[in-house]
Specification:
Blueprint lengths: L1 H9 L6 H18 L5 H24 L10 H21 L15 E4 L2 E4 H23 L1 H11 L1 H6 L4 H27 L5 H16 L4 H21 L7 H13 L14
Antiparallel strand pairs: 1-2
Length: 272
Amino acid sequence: MGYNLTFWTLKIINFAQGDLLMIVVMLSLSFGILWFKLPMVLAVIIALIIAALFGVLLQKVAISPLLKNPSSSGWIVSTMGAGIVLQSIAVMLWGTIEMAFPYFSGKQVIIKISSATLDMQWLIIMGVTLAIVLLFEIFVDNTIFGKAIKATAADKFAARAMGINTDKIVIFSVASSSVLAGIAGVLIAPILSANPYMGSMIGIKGFAAAVLGGMGSTKGALVGGIIIGISELLASGFINPALKDAVSLLILFGVLVFLPNGIFGQQYYEKV
């Protein structure tokens, strides 16, 4: 969903998304445990605000100036570069040692279903994800601001001509995209642990899910993520555990070659 928001309003892919996810996790851990001993909820909120501000700064400094030339693809390098900068700063601040991120329940809770076991954190992830998707769909379809986002996504120049402040819409989408990355990070961190490199592979998997579902489609991102997750588990369990992280790359390659619009993506035609 974070990738989709920036794609909607800017028609670009923010390749720093995974590292924004990582920086929220590391800042939350630092504010809550390592540095200031703040309540974890407050630490996460502060980290999300910082991520939103960084996302807006990235859009102002490294993305928008490069979009003045429609044929330029410099935003690819600038967003990748921003991700590398974030990763380097994280290594300098926290080193490369993996750190445990606290569970929301205070400790790991395992649910037993017959002979199978399930980490409670996975249920929390699924619940929060569904809630965010539903709330976002309601917001976009039933509020004036949400409709302004859709108008800006459809045609920024026409939306501006109709009196919509498209600059405000872009800032909102970039900040929200960064916040979504951070929420994903703090949800998955208790299971994966926290380190400066955690965002790289998660970012690739998120991008693969968005492309598989169809760029710009919220339900597509959800379905794409489920398909990739199930494919990873099947490949790991029935073929080789070493293939787990390679599956998303293979799916991404296959989609780009054989299904470039994704499952729910639409093909647009433009007269020139």
